[in-house]
C-alpha cells in the first residue's frame, strides 16, 4: 500500500515538474469543453487551440489557471482573452492557408500564435513596449517563425504590408479606425470589438466585397481599451 501511494505521488510529482503532460491534458479538456462543447466547429481552429501552449503566454503566478474559462492578467493592466473568445474571433475570420493577417494588440502573443498556424504570415502591433518585446522573444523561442511583431500605435495599421486578407483587433475601440478599413483586401474580413470605453462593446465583423463594406454585430463582449498614445513615452 505504502509503495503504491509513493508511486502515485512520485509519478504525479514528476508530471507536475515536467509540466507538459499535465498541461496537455488541461488543454485538451479546455478544447473539448469550452470550445467544441460550444459553437467552435472549424477543425483547424480546434487543432490550433490544442497545439499552442497557452500556459507559456501567461505570467507564472497564473499558470494554474491558464486553461480555465476566463481572461487573465498579463501585466501593464492588460489581459489575455478567454480561450473561447480567442477561438471564436479566429473562427470568424475564416482563414485560408495563404492569407496574410494583421493583428492589433499583441499582448502576450497568444492570439498571434493561434493565427500563425492558420495563415501564411501574421503581422502584429503592440502599443506597450515591454509587452511587445516580451511577446516577440516568446514567439521566437517557441519557434513561431511567420509572425512579425511591431511596437507602436496600431491605429494606422501596417501600410507597407497592406492589404491584409484578415484583420483582428483585440482591444476595444470606440469607432472603427479608418486606416484599418483602407488596409483590408478585397474579400477581406475584420473582427473588432466596438463600443464605449468602460461599457459593453459589440464584437463586429466587417467584410469587404466588390469594394463595399458590410457590418455585422456578433455578440456583446468586454475588452481592454484601444488606446492612442504610446504608454512608454516620457518614462
Ligand atoms: N491578443 C492579446 C491580448 C490583447 S489585450 C493576447 O493574445 O494576449 C489588448 C492589447 O492591445 C493590450 O496589450 C494593449 O496594450 C494593446 N493595445 C491597445 N491599444 C493599442 C493600439 N492603439 N495599438 C496597438 N496595441 C494596442
Provide an overview of this structure.
- This protein is an alpha/beta fold and 235 residues long.
- The model is unreliable at 231-235 (pLDDT under 50).
- The strands form 2 sheets. Strands 5-4-3-6-7-8-9 form a 7-stranded mixed β-sheet.
- Helix 2 packs antiparallel against helix 3.
- The protein contains 7 helices and 9 strands.
- It has a domain at 70-233: Rossmann fold (3-Layer(aba) Sandwich), CATH 3.40.50.
- It binds S-adenosyl-L-homocysteine.
- The site of S-adenosyl-L-homocysteine has 25 residues, from strand 2, helix 5 and strand 4.
Order of helices and strands: HHHEEHEHEHEEHEEE
Beta-strand percentage range:
25-35%
Uncertain residue ranges: 231-235
- Name the overall outline: globular
| Strand element count | 9
Overall mean confidence score, pLDDT:
92
Task: Give the structure's gist in a few sentences.
The protein is of the alpha/beta class. The chain has helices at about 1-20, 20-35, 45-50, 85-90, 110-115, 130-140, 180; strands at about 70-75, 80, 100-105, 120-125, 145-150, 165-170, 185-195, 200-210, 210-220. The strands form two sheets. A seven-stranded mixed beta sheet has the order 5-4-3-6-7-8-9. A two-stranded antiparallel sheet has the order 1-2.
Tell me the layout of helices and strands.
Elements: H1 2-18, H2 20-36, H3 43-51, E1 72-75, E2 78-80, H4 83-92, E3 100-104, H5 110-116, E4 121-126, H6 129-141, E5 147-151, E6 164-169, H7 178-182, E7 184-194, E8 201-209, E9 212-221
Parallel strand pairs: 3-4, 3-6, 4-5, 6-7
Antiparallel strand pairs: 1-2, 7-8, 8-9
Helix pairs in contact: 2-3
Bound molecules: S-adenosyl-L-homocysteine.
